[in-house]
């Protein structure tokens, strides 16, 4: 059985996903509560490094990059509606240096001023819910409180469990005072929980018979911005499964809110077109899309059925890299596409491998750090032209580089 760290743990999309709140000083204490404003947008980047053990033996080490883009669309009393897109990409650390796009989820939920979540049962994200839940009173340094929460996991691929899988816990909190992070002092609280859960059997190929785990988190709160600045976490989760197998995840995670300028797509496209013409790059077009600005590397050359990057293409990519460096604040998505030939599985693998080859070359040249590059293969799912003609098939064999808006 194939156990993917991303699919089994669905990464650590953690609780601070939309800390839009404030701290109010009163009589030497702080009052933690959420404050929402319609139209607010947030982008959260978290990085997880974990070791995966199968039957108590080390299996592999993975690094998981989670991107969360959120917009508050409506505020009704003390509850705000959040529209979120969660993207998870994974890098097996013994393998390529780029990240592979694993999953993308859309979620809609409400959160009140104390942190209680309202969400329909079909959503898989966020994983950790009702955490934090604040007590609604002044808190002095060292004071503690607790509240119930739960995790929700996507076990469709790993275990064949088709519904979001819920794991309850009781979280404990302590207001720790003030600490420094990246040269600035923030009020800080800890958030921890322990899990020992023997659930009932559910429909699936296999299912958890016993779940044990622990999470210990430190949250840094930005008073001026009225939101969490960052968090650190250590975690351990153990699943004893119905087939006798044990799967364990041990790791650390960290996250921060990333502020990026609003993308003026029309002006950006023209700037890129001007640079392409100045550098004399052939067979490259630019378009606006939902995810950002896409550079289409038409007719990029690889040997047949290979992801080996030819020297002629490296020259083109060197010039593309010069353009991408001018927009260093934007993460990039490298997508591979094929013509309609061979099997769907083969097309998907080939398109992913070719996209990874381009991404790794750009990383090797210092165009982006690996944590700012995502790779995704599309196979023949997104043709630009008719695959029944030689010219159309050639256009469909391409690699696209997207400057991501979020």
Strands, helices and their partners?
Elements: H1 5-9, E1 21-26, E2 29-34, E3 41-54, E4 57-76, E5 79-92, E6 99-111, E7 117-119, E8 128-129, E9 144-153, H2 156-159, E10 165-181, E11 184-197, E12 208-222, E13 227-241, E14 246-257, H3 265-279, E15 284-288, E16 292-298, H4 311-325, E17 332-337, H5 344-364, E18 373-377, H6 390-396, E19 398-404
Parallel strand pairs: 6-18, 17-18
Antiparallel strand pairs: 1-2, 3-4, 3-14, 4-5, 5-6, 6-7, 8-9, 9-10, 10-11, 11-12, 12-13, 13-14, 15-16, 16-19, 17-19
Description:
The protein has 406 residues and is α+β, with helices and mostly antiparallel strands. The chain has 2 domains: 5-257, Lipovitellin-phosvitin complex, beta-sheet shell regions (Roll), CATH 2.30.230; 265-404, OmpA-like domain (60s Ribosomal Protein L30, Chain: A). 17% of the residues lie in helices and 47% in strands. It has a 17-stranded mixed sheet that branches. It has a two-stranded antiparallel sheet with strand order 1-2. The longest helix has 21 residues, at 344-364. The radius of gyration is 23 Å and the shape is globular.
- Overall shape: globular
Poorly predicted runs are: 6-11, 14-27
User: Ends: how far apart?
Assistant: 35 Å
Bin the helical content.
10-25%
N to C succession of SSEs = HEEEEEEEEEHEEEEEHEEHEHEHE
Radius of gyration: 23 Å
What assembly state would you assign to the polypeptide chains in this entry?
A: single chain
Main attributes of the structure:
single chain; 406 residues; alpha+beta; Lipovitellin-phosvitin complex, beta-sheet shell regions; 17-stranded mixed beta sheet; two-stranded antiparallel ribbon
């Amino acid at each position: 059985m194939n156990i993917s760290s991303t699919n089994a743990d669905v990464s650590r999309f953690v609780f601070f996903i939309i800390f839009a709140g404030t701290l109010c000083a009163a009589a030497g204490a702080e009052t933690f509560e959420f404050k929402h404003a319609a139209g607010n947008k947030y982008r959260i980047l978290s990085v997880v490094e974990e070791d995966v053990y199968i039957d108590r033996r080390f299996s592999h080490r993975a690094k998981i990059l989670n991107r969360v883009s959120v917009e508050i669309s409506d505020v009704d009393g003390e509850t705000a509606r959040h529209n979120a897109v969660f993207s998870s990409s994974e890098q097996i650390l013994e393998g390529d240096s780029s990240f592979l796009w694993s999953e993308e989820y859309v979620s809609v939920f409400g959160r009140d001023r104390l942190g209680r979540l309202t969400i329909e049962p079909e959503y898989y994200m966020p994983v950790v819910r009702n955490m934090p839940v604040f007590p609604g009173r002044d808190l002095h340094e060292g004071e503690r409180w607790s509240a119930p929460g739960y995790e929700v996991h996507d076990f469709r691929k790993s275990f064949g469990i088709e519904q979001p899988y819920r794991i309850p816990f009781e979280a404990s909190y302590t207001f720790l005072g003030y600490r420094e992070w990246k040269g600035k002092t923030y009020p800080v609280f800890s958030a921890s929980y322990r899990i020992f859960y023997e659930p009932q059997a559910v429909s699936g190929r296999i299912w958890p018979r016993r779940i044990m785990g622990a999470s210990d988190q430190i949250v840094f709160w930005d008073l001026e911005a009225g939101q969490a600045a960052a968090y650190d976490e250590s975690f351990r989760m153990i699943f004893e499964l119905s087939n006798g197998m044990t799967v364990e995840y041990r790791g650390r995670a960290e996250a921060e809110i990333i502020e990026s300028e609003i993308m003026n797509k029309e002006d950006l496209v023209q700037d890129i077109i001007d640079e392409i013409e100045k550098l004399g790059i052939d067979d490259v077009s630019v378009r606006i899309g939902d995810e950002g600005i896409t550079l289409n590397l038409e007719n990029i050359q690889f040997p047949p059925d290979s992801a080996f990057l030819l020297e002629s293409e490296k020259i083109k990519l060197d010039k593309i890299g010069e353009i991408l460096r001018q927009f260093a604040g934007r993460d990039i998505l490298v997508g591979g596409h094929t013509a309609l030939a061979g099997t769907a599985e083969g097309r998907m693998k080939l398109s992913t491998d070719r996209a990874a080859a381009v991404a790794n070359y750009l990383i090797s040249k210092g165009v982006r750090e690996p944590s700012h590059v995502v790779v995704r293969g599309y196979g023949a799912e997104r043709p630009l032209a008719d695959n029944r003609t030689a010219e159309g098939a050639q256009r469909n064999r391409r690699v696209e580089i997207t400057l991501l808006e979020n």
